[in-house]
Amino acid sequence: MIELKNLTVRIEDKMILKDVNLHIAHGETIALFGPNGSGKTSLLKTIIGIPAYRVESGRIFFDGADITELTMDERAKLGIGIAFQRPPAVRGVKLKTMLRICMEKRGIFNEDKINEFAHKLNLHNCLDRDINLGFSGGEIKRSELLQLLAQNPKFIMFDEPDSGVDLVSIHLVGKVINELLEKEKLASKRTKAGLIITHAGYILDYVNADRGCIMLNGTIICSGNPRDLLEDIRTKGYEECVRCLK
Ligand SMILES: Nc1ncnc2c1ncn2[C@@H]1O[C@H](COP(=O)(O)OP(=O)(O)O)[C@@H](O)[C@H]1O
Ligand SMILES: [Mg+2]
């Protein structure tokens, strides 16, 4: 579904991603690990097409089509979605209005569906508030997921859905990510794929990842069983990755 080929990206004159290669198949979920500042969020922002993240060389393919030059809204319309780590508050736009617009675009708007999604994420009290304005950390994470339920993208990226989230929220977050990624279906029957950044790996107790990747200094340096990678990171730290590279 997604293929990154030798992707090199800069912001202004700083190189932040170097020669990134990644392939994500239909039905697959990838966990992305890496120390702070290694470029994980930048990778997601590059895939969704935030203009400041300039692709210096390499290509991004989605369902076989080259999307490297497409704008962010064109990518969203093709079916790429993202739950941001720290989304901005949107003053003057109610959460409910945003959900209604997303669902109208898909031709499925109905008030009951919005209420059902909001109840699922325990956000019914936030529907008439401005998006993310004054929301708690957990509410922001759930609000991002609520917008994704309304958009229903094919390829979904989650930036640290488990950071700053309490135990009750993380259970809900996990449940909705599983629903968004059609985890109840056999992998071969799924039409979705996901990329989940996780620092501590808590979300992996709720959402099964098929493969894990480690990013270091703007490059994906290895991939493997996500549980094994996480265990290695926990016991040996990322210093071992640096040694391993040498
Ligand atoms: N908009 C930006 N302007 C300048 N530097 C940035 C910007 N976004 C990210 N960076 C830099 O790129 C590097 C990678 O950041 P980021 O992708 O947020 O890492 P991670 O998500 O792995 O913690 C950091 O050094 C960060 O300061
Ligand atoms: Mg980040």
Task: Please supply descriptive tags for the structure shown above.
246 residues; alpha/beta; Rossmann fold; 6-stranded mixed sheet; 8 helices; 28% strand; globular; binds adenosine-5'-diphosphate; binds magnesium ion
Mean pLDDT: 95
Do you know the CATH topology? Rossmann fold
- Oligomer, anyone? single chain
CATH class: Alpha Beta
Largest sheet: 6 strands, mixed
What CATH architecture label applies? 3-Layer(aba) Sandwich
Q: From the helix content, strand content and strand pairing, which structural class follows?
A: alpha/beta
Tell me the Rg in angstroms: 18 Å
Termini gap: 32 Å
Shape: globular
Q: What topology, given as strand order, has the largest sheet?
A: 6-9-10-3-11-12
Description of the structure:
With 246 residues, the protein is an alpha/beta fold. Helices cover 34% and strands 28% of the residues. The strands form three sheets. The protein has a six-stranded mixed sheet with strand order 6-9-10-3-11-12, sandwiched between helices. The protein has a four-stranded antiparallel sheet with strand order 2-1-4-5, covered by helices on one side. Helix 5 packs parallel to helix 6 (167-180). It has one domain: Rossmann fold, CATH 3.40.50. It starts with a strand and ends with a helix. Bound molecules: adenosine-5'-diphosphate and magnesium ion. Magnesium ion is lined by residues 40-41, 85. Residues 40-41, 85 line the site of magnesium ion.
